[in-house]
Amino acid sequence: MKKVTLYTDGACSVNPGVGGWGAVLMFNGFEKRISGADGSTTNNRMEMMAVIEGLKCLKEPCEVVVYSDSAYVVNAFVNGWVAGWVKNGFVKSDNKPVLNADLWQELLKLTQVHKVCFIKVKGHADNEYNNICDKLATDAVKNFKRQL
Predict the structure, then answer these.
(1) Distance separating alpha carbons of residues 33 and 6, to the nearest angstrom
(2) CA angle 139, 34, 90 (to 5 degrees)
(3) Which of 15, 18, 87, 135 is most deeply packed, by most CB within 10 A?
(4) 43-56 vs 71-78: helix axis angle to the nearest 10?
């Protein structure tokens, strides 16, 4: 199974508002950078979209290490929140629906295709690839706004 490294980040100019995401995939010395934007979204949705779109780039099942500065995304998997949400039909323990259930379900399907490990990195620090993803995401927001 191929081993891939995936760095991701999401950004919102106003939360909610115009948002962007960026991702860098690395495999065997090669690097692919991707990004996108949405006109009406939240930072958390963009963090999730970065991981989803990164995983969608993979053409076959892979071992993927995802580096994200999003505690929301990382903790959902590392702390088992997603498994609990699935068990409870995407309803939280307070009987309220899980926010972003559509994206959690999509992300969950992708993590069943690939062997995925999530690692939390500090955002806006000295992590080169997290900073690259942040720039991809913020540039996607700027480009989206220019087109309006």
Answers:
(1) 10
(2) 100
(3) 18
(4) 60
Between CA 140 and CA 148, with CA 146 as vertex, the angle to 5 degrees is 110
Cα distance between residue 40 and residue 26, in whole Å: 30
Rounded distance between C-alpha atoms, residue 54 and residue 5, angstroms: 10
CA nearest neighbour of 70 among 134, 144, 143 = 134
Evaluate the CA torsion angle 60, 66, 72, 77 in order and state its sign.
Answer: positive
The first and second tokens of residue 20, run together, are 């962007």
Does this model's pTM top 0.85? My answer is yes
Helices (H), the chain: 43-56, 71-78, 81-87, 101-113, 128-147
CA gap 30, 28 in Å, rounded: 6
Whole-number pLDDT of residue 93: 86
- pLDDT tens-digit series, residues 116-130: 999 999 987 889 999
Catalytic residues: 9-10, 47, 69, 124, 134
In the chain, the amino acid numbered 139 is: D
CA angle, residues 59, 76, 20, in degrees to nearest 5: 60
27, β-bridge pairs: 30
Q: Are 41 and 25 in contact (CB under 8 A)?
A: no
